[in-house]
Amino acid sequence: MGSLIRPTTIQDETQIIDFLARIFPLADHATLVDPSLLRWKYWEPRLDCPDPRSFVLERDGRIVAHVGLWPVTVRIGGNRERGVNMIDWSSDPLAPGAGLSLLQRMTRSYDFVYSIGGSEMTQTILPKFGFRTVAQTLSWARPIRPWRQMLHHQSRDLRLPLRLARNIWWSRTPARAIARGWAAVEAGAGAGPDFPAERDDAFFRYLQQCPAARCLTFHILSQSRKVGFFALSILREQTRITGVWLEDPSPENWRTAFHLAQEAALRHTDTSEIIATGATEASARAAGEAGMRLRGSLPVFLFRKSGGTDAVPLQFQLSDHDAFFRGGRLADFWT
User: How confident is the model at residue 330 (pLDDT cuts 50, 70, 90)?
Assistant: First the structure.
């Protein structure tokens, strides 16, 4: 029968679960092999992207490689470009070149393909196939309920009392106050930003259907006018700032957005920690001023089918890859 690359359907569910469970480490299985999450990732209809979101390469009728897609459409100049972040990209070690064949198929099919972080092997392979490092996405965190966090923390050792004392002080250290007249109000179900952005209402309706993480969305108001938007995902004991979109993305407005997101996490959730990621200088400065601390960074690799060297207008937030919902069965705090 030879080799065949094809989009998957829900009839492939059992085979894909078996394949991913065999290829990926056991620690990843909570996200990878949960059937309801698998259906949502790959086959739940999306009005903002009706194209297939999962592909396999078969050899003699057997799956030897798989890739899932997290799509986005951006405006560059007067044109709309379709791009994807590759998720759950994997190949059978006994099938050399299978994963690379899927990678090449994606780079031919979309205007751009990007990857945030990835395994050591992934980060070694991508530059050899024309991917460039275009940014570093930074990760930030702050404890918001340290006593509750102590009860659920993954590291239960002799440092726990010191961590608790530090996090109590950290959570109570006031961030710089925001200007008067700013507020966050919960958006209606499936509502998105009221101004042009790379994500629209259909995308947020899709996020709110996620079976693994609860998604809350908020309009940012300045003097009662909508000037921004943010989304939160709640995964066990952690609130994740899924994304922030601003009419005027100044450092001051970013800081206000992060401040309002922390207030929303305290008002609308019972989580113990809040995290955010981003790749812009303004968001990095604002995160620190809003009381969060840097917890790590990951490179962003980009391939442009046109051969262009310019980056794409994405902030590489949690909404731009599977970190929106990815996680194990237990809390995994960053603080």
Answer: low
Reported as a pLDDT band with limits 50, 70 and 90, residue 179 is: confident
Residue 269 structure tokens: 């959730």
Domains, the chain, ranges and CATH?
3-110 (3.40.630.30), 138-296 (3.40.630)
Structure tokens at 216: 């809350």
| Residue in 87, 65, 47, 83 with CA at minimum distance from that of residue 6 | 65
Find the Cα–Cα–Cα–Cα dihedral 44, 48, 51, 56, rounded to 10°. Answer: -60
Q: What is the pTM of this model?
A: 0.92
DSSP conformation class of 196: -
The two three-digit tokens of residue 14, written as one number: 């059992």
Q: What pLDDT was estimated at residue 37?
A: 94
**Cβ burial 249-278 (10 Å sphere, 16+ → b, else e):** beeebbbbbbbbbbebbeebbebbbbbbbb
- The CA distance from 259 to 168, in Å, is 18
How far, in Å, CA of 240 to CA of 325, rounded? 9
Phi/psi of residue 233, nearest 5 degrees: -115, 140
Q: What is the pLDDT of residues 183-226, one digit of tens each?
A: 999 998 778 888 888 888 999 999 999 999 999 999 999 999 99
DSSP string, 246-298: ESS--HHHHHHHHHHHHHHHHHH---SEEEEEE-SHHHHHHHHHTT-EEEEEE
Element (H, E) at 123: helix 120-125
pLDDT recorded at residue 198: 86
Question: What is the pLDDT at residue 61?
Answer: 86
